[in-house]
Amino acid sequence: MSQHQINLTINGRPHCSTVEGRLTLSDFLRGDAGYTGVHVGCEHGVCGACTVIVDGNAVRSCLMLAVQADGSKITTVEGLAADDGTLHPVQQAMKDECALQCGFCTPGIVMTLTALTNCANKPSGDTLVQAMSGHICRCTGYQGIKRAAMKLGGDAA
Amino acid sequence: MKPAPFDYLAPSSIAEACQLLSEAGGGATILAGGQTLMPLLALRMSQPFILIDITRIAALKGVTRNAGITRIGPILRQNEAIADPTLAQAQPLIVTATRHVGHHQTRNRGTIGGSIALGEPAAELPATSVALGASLELTSTRGTRRIAAEEFYFGPYATALEPDELLTGIHVPEWQSGTVWMFREISQRPGDFGLVGLTGALTVKDGRIERAGIAWFGMGPTPIKARQVEAALLGQSINTLDPRALAELAIADTAPFDDHHASAEYRRTVGKRVFASALSETLNLRAAA
């Protein structure tokens, strides 16, 4: 059972930690680094709740080992709103469109939409809605999520 | 943390990775994108002693073209493949197939080689490799060998890859100009495995089919090459083709099964329709399905 030292940046802050090889990135972010906005649902890559941004891309943090994130820049939902509490445009769109019910799946959805809308080529609303196939909302509140995605893509909901 | 304990190793060269595989004597598992392996580790269905992460090996990356062959580095991420300009030009069918693999979020981690080496029978990339006549480069401390994708798959997740071997390259022949591509996948939701999938290439010259490579996924224990219909299509004039008449032959090599998603009969029925409509649409034939 191997131990590894990892250096990474989380929400702009450098982190250094020693982790066991088998520690998942999701457990590392929640347990070791304290970013509990990373929600862990199924822990085997089906639900999408644990999605974070690693080096610009939305990935499921339960399907990655913490040791694999050595040298990466990670953004969790805690890293989105401004210090004065101003919401990120994705968060604002989710709020405006009532795109959350219990809120468990929300951080993952917000991170996928953030990663995609940060790209140089602005994706269409349809592309954003397609990417929602990687998330499960057990409240089944998909219509609000869809409206928020369409709005972010510049399409009428 | 749910996986059973293991030693994590991240070699920086192919030689080092092969040495580690050889020394582990079957106790090691390769980690590439991890989008299939990580769930298996979390569920403890896989409990390797050693996990060898190959994603830091630079020699396993990249797409190159040489003498009519496209060589794909196995650790190319699926979303990187979709955005790769070389691949878009040389291997559009692989790009199309990759768009259907998993979800956007898993394609950011999942690799082309990982999907091909795993051998899931309902997966898009193994069948597409078979259809295009790709060959796989397998390396171990014993040397490097090449095997046709068509001969690589034995059964669900059972392949010709030996425990000490690593997939180090995917060599895909470049089909000449005049080639048209077909890709169809019937699944319950986007991102789900295909219940019925068809992937293939047809080279048309002077109105006749000169070359055909067609394979099914989700239609048997491995990707299935549709040999009988390939043979029947060769030399045919596209003006006199009857896609519906060929549909029975198209599924003749398949061996679909019943599972909780669909029955074998459903898969055969849908397969015939999918083939007929894909062929007509690809060749711009009259509505046939």
From TrEMBL, chain A:
Listed CDD domains: fer2
Show the GO MF annotations.
2 iron, 2 sulfur cluster binding; metal ion binding; oxidoreductase activity
What's the superkingdom here? Bacteria
SUPFAM superfamilies attached here? 2Fe-2S ferredoxin-like, CO dehydrogenase ISP C-domain like
| Annotated keywords | 2Fe-2S, Iron, Iron-sulfur, Metal-binding, Oxidoreductase
Domain 2Fe-2S ferredoxin-type span(s) in chain numbering: 4-80
The name this protein carries in UniProt is 4-hydroxybenzoyl-CoA reductase subunit gamma
Q: Which organism is it from?
A: Stenotrophobium rhamnosiphilum
Automatic annotation (TrEMBL), chain B:
Q: Show the InterPro entries listed in the entry.
A: CO_DH_flav_C, CO_DH_flav_C_dom_sf, Diverse_Substr_Oxidored, FAD-bd_PCMH, FAD-bd_PCMH-like_sf, FAD-bd_PCMH_sub1, FAD-bd_PCMH_sub2, Mopterin_DH_FAD-bd
Q: Could you give a GO molecular-function term held by this entry?
A: oxidoreductase activity
Show where the FAD-binding PCMH-type domain sits. Answer: 1-177
Provide the alphabetized UniProt keywords: FAD, Flavoprotein, Oxidoreductase
Stored SUPFAM superfamilies: CO dehydrogenase flavoprotein C-terminal domain-like, FAD-binding/transporter-associated domain-like
Q: Which residues cross the membrane?
A: none
This one is known as Molybdopterin dehydrogenase
